[in-house]
Specification:
Blueprint (H helix, E strand, L loop, with lengths): L13 H25 L5 H22 L12 H23 L2 H8 L2 H13 L5 H18 L11 H20 L5 H18 L10 H27 L2 H4 L5 H14 L5 H27 L1
């Protein structure tokens, strides 16, 4: 058990958990957009290292707010090492997916993650997943496909990168749910960030590209967005069951649509609006079933 003061947004609360996951999705979507821009100029390992350095900036602020280094104390280091390894693998796979696939296709494939989490939540966390929640998760994924309408390019070999990343992400989320009951969110994020940054730094021996001055701001933005996103995501698993909050990652596709409209002027078509409605509707239904089961119990 961690002896430091745990930074948390509150006690167990399904609604707060859902809101944290929705907010995390927004920050991750922004981060992925910036990341896609950087993959054309820098190796994967260099991106992991430089972005990781800037993630420590929000971490330092959170540690200071939590009362200092005591907030980083943990009961067992082994789960943090395992989560760090999953983060390294997932980050490497996803960035490679962004490098070789269209942005929307790479994102759409990773949304298979909630299906893996739902499947694993029962055996690994002991959570009861009834058929209605299974159906809602499947419908939510169908909504994502309606929005994306993946092209034939998805069928190429590079699709294995984001698909494998969704598997490692599911395992990470399951492990996070267990860890967040004992260790602070900031501690969980701190040790995983060390792992990803160190793994990226090792690739220096393979050769890095000179960093352009204008790109330093992009790396800073990536680090800040990722730090905020992972803190909110860890909080989501602290506040609610994994099988409840994970499907709300689908809302990230809605964020992508909104950002496309505001920043690039892309006007969504009828299929996009229909898919967004399905995604949001399935998430709200899962939340409704969660509340109903608590009341019946």
């Amino acid at each position: 058990m961690s002896t430091g003061r745990i930074i948390s947004l509150g006690s167990i609360s399904p609604l707060k958990g859902v809101l944290c996951m929705v907010g995390a999705g927004l920050f991750l979507t922004l981060n992925d957009a910036v990341l896609k821009w950087l993959t054309g100029d820098y190796p994967v390992g260099q991106i992991m290292f430089l972005r990781g350095l800037f993630v420590f900036l929000p971490i330092i602020l959170l540690v200071w707010h939590a009362g200092g280094p005591r907030s980083l104390r943990v009961g067992r280091i082994t789960p943090h090492l395992l989560r760090g390894a999953l983060m390294v693998a997932g980050t490497f796979l996803f960035i490679n997916g962004l490098r070789h696939l269209p942005f929307a296709d790479a994102i759409s494939i990773t949304f298979a993650g909630p299906l893996f989490v739902t499947a694993l939540a029962a055996p690994l966390l002991g959570e009861v997943i009834r058929w209605r929640r299974w159906l809602a998760v499947g419908i939510g994924f169908a909504g994502v496909l309606i929005i994306i309408r993946p092209t034939s390019e998805v069928a190429q070999w590079a699709a294995i990168f984001p698909l494998a990343a969704s598997v490692t992400g599911a395992l990470r989320d399951i492990l996070t749910r267990k860890m967040s009951q004992h260790d602070s969110s900031i501690a969980v994020m701190f040790y995983s960030t060390i792992a990803v940054t160190a793994a990226g730094g090792v690739t220096f021996v393979g050769g890095w590209e000179p960093v352009q001055l204008e790109d330093i701001g992009l790396f800073f933005l990536c680090g800040f967005l990722l730090g905020c996103a992972h803190f909110l995501m860890i909080e989501a698993f602290r506040l609610a069951e994994a099988a409840l909050v994970v499907p709300f990652k689908y809302v990230s596709m809605v964020w992508a649509v909104v950002l496309g409209l505001v920043i690039w002027g892309d006007i969504p078509d009828a299929w996009t609006f229909a898919g967004a409605a399905v995604v949001i509707g399935s998430g709200l239904y899962i939340l409704h079933r969660e509340r109903a089961s608590k009341t019946e119990g």
